[in-house]
Amino acid sequence: MRRLGSVQQKIPCVFLTDVKDEASRKREHQQFQVVATEKVNPLAIEANVDDALATEKLDGTCCYVTTYQGQPYLWARFDRKPNKQAEKRFKKHQHAHRSCKGFSWNVEEDFKTVPETWIPAHRVKHHNGHPVPDEHGHIPGWVPVERSNKQYCWHSSVVDYEVGEALVLKPSCDDENMLEITAVPLAELQELTLELIGTNVNGNPYGLGSKKQPVHCLVPHGCILIRNPPPVDFQQLCSWFQESSDGQVEGIVWHCNNGTLVKIHRHHLGLRWPDGESGLANRPVTIRLEGTVDAYNSKGLLASLLSLNGRSFSRLQDVQYEV
């Protein structure tokens, strides 16, 4: 599986941004909006974004595969956040300065405790042995997805640690227009970040499954390519999102040759998301699983989907299995 930039930190916008005095469409309780200007971010220019690989930005929750208790394990995103008093000071600073920048943290006292298994994300800065928050006041990190933790039941549904596999959605090897849902050894996903999408994640913009038959899967970051991407130009991107059938996506992430990642989100352009059916939901998909019911956890999604092995669906959102 092709390895592209790992999503460990917040990805900067491909354009320089500005702040508007309007309630955020994306972040609850944030009384300002971050919007894109028409000026390309110098970081993107330096990374030669025009030659970068344009991929679909997926609307789910970020995950990571790395070792835990001696074996490859799925980890869930868990940002360490400020306590109530620190959060209040931070919000006051945001309101006064219309920005998150310039706020001073007491890293030892201002943040909530985290589980003992928590690890900071790659490239988080440290000071005096303590991880330092980003400009939004969070310390990005990860916790292992243990089956006993009900908070991560939907994460757990896509992995089977006994057989060491995860349920992955990716382009088919045989046809670039076709998707496939398949079981991939966790060892092959080691050190990759992926997006968990599905029925109970972020309002399910891809129409996967139902309450009675929930469907979730992991999508490796960078694997869904944007076909015929527009140039990095503000007006052309606005038009593409609104007029092109390929623009029915949450956003674009550009993977630059030097490893830099930059993105554009519909909200940066003042556009709605979701806005009708997504392009991913309408792509055809084939189920390719090679295990046996006895091998997989009988209560897991891998076992449930095994009955569909070899079947193709004209749309991803049509995938259903017997309860």
From TrEMBL:
GO terms for biological process: response to reactive oxygen species; RNA repair. One of its GO terms (molecular function) is ATP binding. Its EC number is 6.5.1.3. Keywords: ATP-binding, Ligase, Nucleotide-binding, RNA repair. Pfam families: RLIG1. It catalyses: ATP + (ribonucleotide)n-3'-hydroxyl + 5'-phospho-(ribonucleotide)m = (ribonucleotide)n+m + AMP + diphosphate. The keyword Nucleotide-binding applies. It comes from the Eukaryota. Its cofactor is Mg(2+); Mn(2+). InterPro entries: RLIG1. Functions as an RNA ligase, in vitro. The ligation reaction entails three nucleotidyl transfer steps. In the first step, the RNA ligase reacts with ATP in the absence of nucleic acid to form a covalent ligase-AMP intermediate and release pyrophosphate. In step 2, the ligase-AMP binds to the nucleic acid and transfers the adenylate to the 5'-PO4 terminus to form an adenylylated intermediate. In step 3, the RNA ligase directs the attack of the 3'-OH on the 5'-phosphoanhydride linkage, resulting in a repaired 3'-5' phosphodiester and release of AMP. This is RNA ligase 1. It comes from Cyprinodon variegatus (Sheepshead minnow).
